[in-house]
Specification:
The complex is a heterodimer of chains A (92) and B (262). Chain A is of the alpha+beta class and 92 residues long. Chain A contains 3 helices and 5 strands; from the N terminus they run ββββαααβ. Chain A is 41% helix and 23% strand. Chain B is 24% helix and 33% strand. Classes of the chains: A alpha+beta (92), B alpha+beta (262).
């Protein structure tokens, strides 16, 4: 899992007090991200998982292994909800 | 205003949006004239809305904004087609369908003008508007019924719009249980109150995120494009950054004013 991470381009979103409020225009479903997920939403766009792990572990003084495990879990959850994707082409 | 198909318009204004309704059928024009009597407004610049016979081809139920910018919405057998310069209502058989399509039309026209419709009662007190909002059954009509006569701008659909440097609540002809004609005036907004039935009167202040989360399900919204939702989010955030938003716990009696006005 090291493809490029992208937000679902169809979604409308705004940051409110550091947390993301996201609307899916197709069904008007509203999603709210917690602080951690909001952080990923803000910083992950266009990055690979490796790059994101590097950034998060450096900025928040978290062990890389811990950051990677948490990020993989989070990205999987965001993917399930069709909020963020990890592009399959670049998986290595 | 020039006649369309030899039909003179019924000219109204809702939320400071002038509309010229071209209604050919007397069976519909009469109840519409009665229904919107408090919102009559002579203007040369009313946005033309032409009522037409039912169409037979288009039957797609979803809201749709095309690349050209034309928006269309099918509601039961009636359809709204909205373009930049005018709108058409097809297959409107009674005043209630007309009322519903007008609401949808207004949500679209108001969207780029920092305005929107909200499931809420608007009550004026000391020259300022209090918006009590919530989904069906939340207590909007109850709040309206517990408020002094003449102070209620609507018991069902509130219209909020940013103009002249502040947020204003406009009266609407869209009523619920009260079935009143409405009042066509605008009043600065004092506060927003999400209704929650409880055993005591209490006001709980909501931060911007909670306020946005409370408002979103109560906004009448029919658009389906990303930029339209972004515009709505921007508008609502602008509102909650300027106007305090609360959750109002209340017992369905007039005691709630004690905590609202405090």
């Amino acid at each position: 899992m090291n493809g490029q991470i992208t937000r679902n381009p169809k979604l409308a979103w705004r940051e409110v007090d550091g947390e993301m409020v996201i609307i899916s225009p197709e069904d008007s479903q509203v999603h709210e991200l917690n602080e951690t997920a909001s952080l990923v939403w803000k910083h992950a766009e266009g990055k690979t998982l490796d790059e994101l792990v590097e950034k998060i572990s450096a900025e928040y003084e978290v062990a890389r292994e811990t950051a990677r495990a948490d990020l993989e879990e989070l990205l999987a959850a965001l993917g399930e909800k069709q909020l963020m994707f990890v592009s399959p082409e670049a998986k290595g | 205003m020039e006649p369309v198909d030899n039909c003179l318009p019924l000219q109204i204004s809702i939320g400071s949006v002038p509309l010229s309704l071209f209604i050919r059928e007397a069976a519909l024009l009469e109840p519409a004239t009665r229904r919107y009597r408090e919102f009559r407004h002579n203007s040369e610049n009313g946005f033309p809305v032409v009522l037409k016979k039912p169409e037979v081809v288009l039957k797609k139920p979803e809201a749709r904004t095309q690349e050209s910018g034309e928006f269309s919405y099918l509601l039961d057998d009636a359809r709204l087609i909205l373009r930049a310069q005018d709108a058409e209502f097809h297959g409107v058989r009674h005043e209630y369908a007309l009322d519903s399509l007008l609401r949808i039309l207004l949500t679209m026209v108001l969207l780029p003008q920092r305005g929107f419709l909200l499931h809420g009662a608007t009550v004026v007190r000391d020259g300022r508007a209090y918006i009590f909002f919530g989904r069906s059954g939340a207590g909007k009509s109850t709040v309206a019924s517990l408020s002094p006569k003449g102070s209620v701008l609507t018991d069902e659909i509130s219209l909020l719009r940013y103009s002249n440097g502040c947020w204003q609540a406009h009266g609407t002809p869209f009523w619920g249980e009260f079935r009143a004609a409405g009042q066509n005036r605008l009043v600065p907004v004092a506060g927003l109150y999400l209704l929650k039935q409880a055993r005591e009167e209490r006001v709980e202040t909501l931060d911007a995120r909670l306020a946005l989360r409370a408002l979103l399900p109560c906004v009448l919204f029919f658009a389906s494009k990303k930029y339209e939702h972004e515009t709505l989010l921007r508008t609502l955030l602008g509102l909650v950054e300027q106007i305090p938003c609360h959750r109002l716990h209340f017992r369905r009696n007039a005691e709630f004013w004690r905590v609202v006005a405090a």
